[in-house]
Design brief:
alpha/beta, eleven-stranded mixed sheet, 15 strands, binds threonylcarbamoyladenylate, binds magnesium ion
Length: 338
């Protein structure tokens, strides 16, 4: 199933590290893909309703799914929020700039289209030096969802962004490969100010609890409880099944030449090597996160019948990786017809 590119217009998409040009385009209300330490984002001026709407159109993303506002520091959040809970301030101080997003009570200054008029507004201080310099240059914050078509695999290189948006946006700001590799941990705060994790990431529940004392996990997958955390997110075009290592068998009726394999640290013996990706030969979960989407993009591009993925150890960052793989596998069945 090819990506639906009917909505694209035919502009030349420049891949360049020219920050001044990126700033100029954003000031004109255009969209620019930007590097962050987690994944590439599709950025627009957060104060410009028309530009923000354009993100939803180009990304084919439903309007109910709110966007993250990217800023240079905590003081740049204050004009847009009613207050910052103590636990949020502590987490921002502990982990920002870095892969954490906090949900704060918005004050209505930013247009409703950013967060679909919800009370909470998401903020993040990205750690990538290129995007940090870009934000310093701009008089407004940037909204930036991951730079992929809705529900598909997220981008960690300029080439991944190009695969989705070539001809649809004027520029991809090149900041190299993303070092963290999966999206930020999203943390909200309940009425008692206790942090609630809405999306798992490389900043783990234990790390958060070490700062705030307490942390809750939101395990709902409905759009109402956690907008955007749909069960079928992050999906490659190829059907993906997620298995424990001991259960990674070639399904009956499927030719081994039609199976791509995503392994944690060791290849499978019975599948040709070029059909496999290893996430971390040293069994490092941080390295596995960094390589996850690149490996999925490559295996998907092989156009085989199935991606057989190994479930990682369900601890620390492994939980966030398993969460992405689980969503990538949702709703899939294995077609065993030749
Ligand atoms: O690492 C990241 O967070 C990347 C980079 C580009 O910054 N961005 C990213 O954005 O992953 P996106 O739009 O693909 O995912 C944002 C997530 C969604 O699950 C969305 O529903 C949630 O954050 N979110 C945003 N605003 C929210 C809000 N006000 N309330 C609840 N969830 C919110
Ligand atoms: Mg996304």
């Amino acid at each position: 199933m090819p990506l639906n590119k009917r909505h694209l217009c035919n502009m030349n998409t420049l891949v360049s590290s020219d920050i001044v040009m990126a700033a100029r385009l954003l000031q004109q209300g255009q969209l620019v893909a930007i590097p962050t330490e987690t994944v590439y984002g599709l950025a627009a001026n957060a104060t410009d309703t028309r530009a923000v709407k354009e993100i939803f159109r180009v990304k084919q993303r439903p309007a109910y799914n709110p966007l993250i506002v990217h800023v240079t520091g905590i003081d740049a959040m204050r004009p847009y929020v009613r207050y910052i809970p103590d636990a949020a301030e502590a987490l921002i101080k502990a982990f920002s700039p870095g892969p954490i997003t906090v949900l704060l009570p918005g004050n209505g200054v930013l247009p409703d289209v950013v967060n679909n008029g919800m009370p909470a507004l998401a903020f993040r201080i990205p750690a990538h030096p290129v995007t940090h310099a870009l934000l310093e240059m701009l008089p407004f914050p940037l909204v930036a969802p991951s730079a992929n078509i809705f529900t598909t695999v997220s981008p960690t290189t300029p080439e991944h962004v190009k695969k989705n948006f070539d001809g649809a946006i004027p520029m991809i700001l090149d900041g190299g490969d993303c070092g963290v590799g999966i999206e930020s941990t999203v943390v909200g705060f309940n009425d008692n100010g206790i942090p609630v994790i809405y999306r798992k990431g490389t900043i783990t529940a234990d790390q958060i609890a070490a700062i705030t004392g307490e942390v809750l996990e939101n395990n709902h997958t409905t759009t109402l409880a956690a907008p955007g955390m749909l069960p079928n997110h992050y999906a490659p075009v190829t059907s993906l099944v997620l298995k424990n290592r001991s259960e990674m068998n070639i399904p009956e009726g499927v030719d081994v030449k039609q199976v791509a394999v995503l392994c944690f640290s060791k290849l499978l013996d019975n599948v040709p090597q070029h059909q496999q990706e290893i996430l971390s030969p040293d069994a490092s979960l941080a390295e596995a996160a960094r390589n996850l989407y690149k490996a999925l993009h490559r295996l998907d591009e092989m156009g085989l019948k199935l991606i057989l993925a190994e479930r990682l150890p369900d601890t620390g960052i492994g939980k966030a990786i398993n969460d992405r793989l689980q969503r990538a596998s949702a709703g899939r069945h294995i077609d065993t017809q030749p």
